[in-house]
Write a structure and sequence with these properties.
The chain is mainly alpha-helical. The protein has helices spanning 14-32, 64-80, 84-107, 121-142, and strands spanning 39-40, 55-56, 60-61. The protein has a three-stranded antiparallel β-sheet. The chain crosses the membrane at residues 21-39, 59-80, 87-105, 125-142.
Length: 159
């Protein structure tokens, strides 16, 4: 057995379970973004615009595009949780994307057409914590564990 596959009886590594959990949360958030009541001012939702008045839980500004991105991140998390290396890559890559979104949200004028996602201050803080949290999960859950198949060292490695 290698460390990049699920273990006996389909058991998953901690990083795989984390990627799966993160993926499920993103799916849930994407779905909730389309439910009136959970998303306030639902009738003001735009496809992709800073003028979208809809807010998930009355706090996080959302649009159809924003919700679709959450759904895609969820599907990606579930698909990539099948192996430990892919799960780790999802958490690190997704975390980096969310850190870029955090920086983007800090520098873009929230009332300009450049804020097409759309983002508000609550989204910015969430993106910072998501980015750091996803990267931390990937690094902490794979620390000291090989994610490549056993017996495959790089050139010049010794047993």
């Amino acid at each position: 057995m290698t460390t990049n596959q699920a273990g006996p009886a389909g058991a998953r590594t901690p990083v795989q379970r984390a990627a799966q959990a993160v993926g499920l949360v993103f799916l849930l958030v994407g779905i909730l973004g389309f439910i009136p009541g959970i998303t306030t001012r639902y009738g003001e939702m735009e496809f992709a615009s800073h003028e979208s008045g809809a807010k998930l839980l009355g706090l996080f500004q959302v649009s159809v595009l924003h919700n679709l991105v959450h759904l895609l991140f969820g599907v990606a998390g579930l698909a990539l949780a099948r192996t430990a290396p892919a799960a780790r890559a999802y958490l690190i890559g997704g975390g980096l994307i969310y850190l870029v979104l955090w920086v983007y949200g800090l520098v873009v004028d929230h009332h300009s057409a450049a804020n097409f996602v759309p983002l508000n201050t609550a989204d910015n803080w969430l993106h910072l914590f998501l980015g750091l949290g996803m990267i931390a999960l990937a690094l902490l859950l794979t620390r000291g564990r090989g994610t490549a198949p056993a017996g495959r060292g790089g050139a010049g490695t010794r047993p």
